[in-house]
Design brief:
Largest sheet: 7 strands, mixed
Bound molecules: pyridoxal-5'-phosphate
Distance between the termini: 61 Å
Helix content: 40-55%
CATH architecture of the largest domain: 3-Layer(aba) Sandwich
Oligomer: single chain
Length: 497
Amino acid sequence: MALSDSGAMHEDPDEFRAAVDRATAWIIDYFKHPERYPVLSRVKPGDVSRSFSPSPPERGRPLEAILDDFERAIVPGITHWNHPSFFAYFAISGSMPGILGEYLSAALNVNGMLWRTSPALTELEQVSLGYLRDMLGLPKDMFGMILDTASTSSLIAIAAAREALQDLDIRVKGMAGRSDLPPLILYTSRESHSSVEKAAIVLGIGQENVRKIAVDDRFRMDAADLERCIERDIASGKRPFCVVATVGTTSTTSVDPVPAIVEICGRFSLWLHVDAAYAGMAAILPEMRHTLHGCGSADSLVVNPHKWLATPIDISAFYCRKPDILRNAFSLVPEYLRTPEDPAATNLMDYGFQLGRRFRALKLWMVIEYFGVRGLQSMIREHVRLARALESRIVESPLFELMAPVPFSTVCFRLNPSAQACVAATESEDSREAASQELNEALLNAVNATGEAYLSHTKLNGRFSLRCAIGNMRTASRHIDSLWHILNEQASVILKL
Ligand SMILES: *Cc1c(COP(=O)(O)O)cnc(C)c1O
């Protein structure tokens, strides 16, 4: 019981053991039969909240009863990212060693703000990010730090890029009301992630100072357009300061021409940050090392172990070649945080804006130790193989068409307009596109309503496309076979074949 008769807070180790055993049994069964649940939760907005009491309990309840509630009221409201037929957004995996790492990390409950507030947290973070850096083939001088998400990593990178403009002294003087401060310009492609623009909003750069560089027919940043934009901005008295290139864009997983961008950034002294949140991990395969070609010369780079490295969310690996600039941007040490180890030890609070930090390195280290480099490589290799197999089926099928190249494990496709009598018969391009969108949306909803697979969508050059992202460690050929079957079945219904 959580409350003794005296009303004092109380916990019972035997009860905890029983609850942990039950939870562990539930987890093992869950991974044995993930397909028992619909991938996409079927609850409607408000359903989950309505199944809870409007007020908290006056007296504590047994863990047993709380676990009953978990199964009864929470599991139905879960969209199962662990389902092997989760193909939406970027699929991820909660692996057993990763779960164990989360469990022990919660038990230790340490806060790694300073080296001395848990030396093992700070040092394991450096060790595990060193392993990952070597696996990715990045240079040894890249300083690594764990953050929650790629959004935070890119925000820190862009803040460092701003700090690198030493003559402007923005850390001290700020940006508002300064007649000596030209607009600072950030460059990224039209296909880059929304987190880049959001970082510009947070940092006071302003949306109108984010240049969305054109992409080529394969959705890669046009380096010549980048260069023209930079020159135009300089000529009009603006101050270019940062380029964010993407390795694996969110819609199509296209890869920007990083070596050419490195050269341009060098010439104009701009900070280059590479957002490789998903696709960067492919570089752990010897045959896909080229994925990060040129990225070793970037100033900073982010890759997410919680995306394609079987590590439970959240964990983002941020690498920076100029940790001194991070410190210049963020270090601010009040008296109560001074320690005798300064400056021999790394205090991670000096490299970003957050003070407290969870022990995320534990799960990453356990994942790398348990699967080994070979195991992790085999997962990524298999996902790429499955995506290529799906790509071939789409290319060969009269019903579907491929919408973008497939460099990794994400496939963009849609119903082939020529298979759609009602679409082909329509006059204008716009109305054909609208009709095609309607049919593809209907197909997407029909597939997702089966509960047997979950796809998401995107728009490519204004054209509505379905998107299948393969990234769960338990996804096998049979799941792709089944997806293909469902797609064809639902397409026949929608096209009334
Ligand atoms: C997923 C993704 C992000 C966002 O990642 P978070 O960790 O959720 O912030 C950013 N950029 C790219 C290219 C991504 O694939």
